[in-house]
Design brief:
It is a single chain. The chain is an alpha/beta fold. The chain folds into two domains: 34-95 and 253-339, 3-Layer(aba) Sandwich (Rossmann fold), CATH 3.40.50; 112-233, ABC transporter ATPase like fold (Up-down Bundle), CATH 1.20.1580. Helix content is 30%, strand content 17%. The protein has 13 helices and twelve strands. The strands form four sheets. The protein has a six-stranded mixed β-sheet, with helices on both faces. Strands 1-2 form a two-stranded antiparallel sheet. Helix 7 (198-204) runs antiparallel to helix 8 (211-219). The chain is elongated, with a radius of gyration of 23 Å.
Length: 342
Amino acid sequence: MVAVFVRFRHKSGGARHLCEGEGFSPPSLLLNKKEPLKTNLRKPNDWFAIKDANLHNLKNVSVRLPLGVLTVIAGVAGSGKSSLMEFFQKVYPEDVVSVYQKDIGANSRSTPVTYLDISDDIRRLFANANKVSPALFSFNSKGACPACGGKGVIVSNMYFMDSIETVCDVCHGDRFSKEVLKYTYHGKNIAEVMNFTIDDAIDFFKGKDFIEKLYSLEKVGLGYLHLNQSMTTLSGGELQRVKLASHLNLKGAVFIIDEPTDGLHLDDVRKLMRLFNQLVDDGNSVFLVEHSIDVMKNADYIIELGPGGGRHGGNILFAGTPEEMLNSKASITRPYLINSLP
């Protein structure tokens, strides 16, 4: 994915996809452009009261959390933002979808399609087209390359240093045995299909039942990932968005999302904000633990903790709309918000 820098990990063209996609604005324009506060604020459909929260550095905090809107939990690092959300999750009577960076159990055999439970559907398509067992099209089962066991790499354990991984010279990283590659579906073998990007797969599998799951990855800005890409190669933000993609079909849920825009380009932040707003419009409540002023300007409600971090934090400095923050004498964020306005 694209941040202020670019990671060239794969041949997917992911960096180009994000930079040159529809609606892209040159970085210089985005950095110099000041945006106003959002004007069409939603009103909460309910409130949940937090009383005397004293988790970690919280100092007997009492605050009402709005439901049915987009809320930003703001404050300096260590001010108690995540602690407040952790306390909320413990006392809220219903399930909460919490999406934190690197909270997905990733290993070399897990991929975006295994996480979203799409791989079985793809294997069945190949099996039905060729009248063979679906297990043949799994690199975790009968279809695995005999040399690397379906890992795509050979791991050499070294004394007194980290292990060394080299691409398997039998399957060349495709993970499948040669025997499996003779079977095709619409002119492509399983290795070729699993090496598709999400965007390519959407075109290839158009009309199939599982296409919405692929669309969900596209919606969170991960269309450049490969179907067979190891989850261990993803950044914390990418792992976070894979998890978010698996919950996009929910209605009436409560989401807590930890710093989702961290490291993202400003244009990608706007795309992600459109997604969060759509989640709220679909009847969900979204809480974003965030530092970004641009995100705060697009919130319906802001709760700020502070004034400092650690033992100097843990207090509620402000709770209200972004416009109300402009008149708050206690807010540490207020002058930065004012300075960001046109």
